[in-house]
Amino acid sequence: MSPLRVLTGITTSGTPHLGNYVGAIRPAVRASLAPGAESFYFLADYHALIKVGEPARIQRSTLEIAATWLAAGLDPERVTFYRQSDIPEIPELCWLLTCVTGKGVLNRAHAYKASVDKNTASGHDADTDVTAGLFMYPVLMAADILLFKAHKVPVGRDQIQHIEMARDIAQSFNHLYGEQLVLPEAAIEASVATLPGLDGRKMSKSYDNTIALFAPREQLRKQIAGIVTDSKAPGEAKKCEGSALFEIYQAFANAEETIALRTAYADGIAWGDAKQILFERIDREVAPMRESYEALINDPGKLEDILQSGAVKARRLATPFIATLRQNVGLRNLRSSTDTRAVKPVKAARPSLKQYREKDGFFYFKLVDAHGRLLLQSLGFESPRETAAAIALLQATRSQALLELQTKLQPVEGVSPEEVASALDLLA
Ligand code: TRP
Predict the structure, then answer these.
(1) For 178, left (φ over 0), alpha (ψ -120 to 50), or beta?
(2) Comparing C-alpha atoms, which of 195, 252, 257, 254 is closest to residue 227?
(3) What are phi and psi of 168, to 5 degrees?
(4) Which domains are assigned to the chain?
(5) Ligand 1 mean position to 44 CA, how many Å?
(6) What is the pLDDT, as a whole number, of residue 408?
(7) Which of 195, 200, 350, 389 is deepest in the core (most CB within 10 A)?
(8) How many A from CA of 276 to the centre of ligand 1?
(9) Beta bridge partners of 7
(10) How far is the CA of 145 from the centre of ligand 1 (A)?
């Protein structure tokens, strides 16, 4: 059995905040230290291009995120830590997968659909500002995962659909080309809390309520002072439930410390004092990492070297695998096989007429296109003979027969007469 392979990507579109640290970075670094797992962490900079059109920001974010993960204790000797755009096999696999992915599947992706719905709701054209990159996002993500045969993919809940799509895409590929791709599973850490931000809503860049992970000490203090509380005066008992300050504290404190703050709340601690306690607690965990973060940020050459070694390590797996996949799909050296007899003539998929009996006792026929989409639907006939006669007429005179059969057909929504006519022309 190959070891359990865990893989996750971090989009390089911002500066890491406390929510990222508690929700993703800290659990991932801990998991990477567990024996028996083989971990892959990468900077998803191709994904960042989908939302960020500022080159300097992509570069800066890549630097900051790489420094953050290393400062948080990720050991690049132990795991495979790389940058997506250093692995040309990823976009190559992305194309192979694109060719087995149904467009309809991508139409249903949440992120794409949200953009379309927003446009429609505001009276714009459905595709306004929607790039093909946003549309293709799930396929690129599938390539990230499938290239390294990952079993488990730790992600937030908003990403579960993407992992399911990666599974479906892998299945389609395997069905067509043989079992090559491993079907991945999402790993959602139930014990990891989502951290509230300054205003009590989930800490997120899109709400502009974040606390930077590696802000200088004094800035951290200032940001913590900005956490929203109620207006209870010193001496008045305070509630832990719904207190963002308390929840953030809990994410850093041990059980004893948490109980102590709970008691202090009941005893009417002043908000200013509670904020001071929170600040000191976070700073205690963050300060040592902040120091190595600063050192790394100021040594981009070292970070670049680490990422380059990561890419070499990753490509040791990716290069031979993509070679196999190319072979599988038929992108082959012409010398490798000259046996054309082995090539089965490809049966072009055609539309077809189907005859069947319904539970109501009547006999029907329908015309479906090569993908099974319904184009024509008959009404019920008394006998199979009548159905057969109608089909024979369609086969003999094609679209001309439609006029004669008019009273025997029911309309099919969304199908144009041209589609029906060209399908009839393609009938075997
Ligand atoms: N889409 C992920 C996010 O926004 C980042 C990502 C890109 C990713 N490729 C991945 C995560 C592959 C897991 C596996 O969070």
Answers:
(1) left
(2) 195
(3) -60, -45
(4) 4-193+299-341 (3.40.50.620), 214-297 (1.10.240.10), 352-427 (3.30.160.160)
(5) 7
(6) 93
(7) 195
(8) 35
(9) 40
(10) 9
Measured distance CA(297)–CA(38) in Å, rounded: 27
Residues facing 376 on adjacent strands: 367
Structure tokens at 71: 């400062």
Ligand 1 pocket member 139 (CB < 6 A): no
**Residue type at 276 in one-letter notation:** Q
Closest atom of ligand 1 to 137 CA is 1
Say yes or no: CB of residue 159 within 6 Å of ligand 1: yes
Q: Please give the distance, rounded to the nearest whole angstrom, from the Cα atom of residue 142 to the centre of ligand 1.
A: 9
pLDDT, tens digit, for every residue of 167-181? 999 999 999 999 999
Asked whether 9 lines ligand 1 (CB < 6 A), one says yes
Helix (H), strand (E), coil (C) string for 228-290: CCCCCCCCCCCCCCCCHHHHHHHHHCCHHHHHHHHHHHHCCCCHHHHHHHHHHHHHHHHHHHH
Handedness of CA 235, 241, 244, 249 (dihedral sign): positive
Query: Which of 143, 85, 136 is closest to 325 using CA atoms?
Result: 143
Chain-wide mean pLDDT for the chain?
92
Which position has the higher pLDDT, 37 or 92? 92
Ligand 1 atom closest to 162 (CA): 1
Give the pLDDT confidence of 264-296 residue by residue, as tens digits: 999 999 999 999 999 999 999 999 999 999 999
Q: Which atom of ligand 1 is nearest the CA belonging to 10?
A: 5
Can you tell me the distance from the alpha carbon of 172 to that of 101, in angstroms, rounded to the nearest whole number? Answer: 8
Q: Is the CB of 145 under 6 A from ligand 1?
A: yes
**Atom number in ligand 1 closest to CA 11:** 5
DSSP H helical segments within 298-348, as ranges?
Answer: 300-329
Those residues whose C-beta lies under 8 Å from the C-beta of residue 360, and which sit 6 or more positions away, are: 380
> Quick one: CA torsion of 135, 137, 143, 148, rounded to 10 degrees?
-160
Q: Which amino acid, 359?
A: K
CA 100 / ligand 1 centre spacing (Å): 21
Task: Indicate if ligand 1 lies below 6 Å from the C-beta of 140.
Answer: no
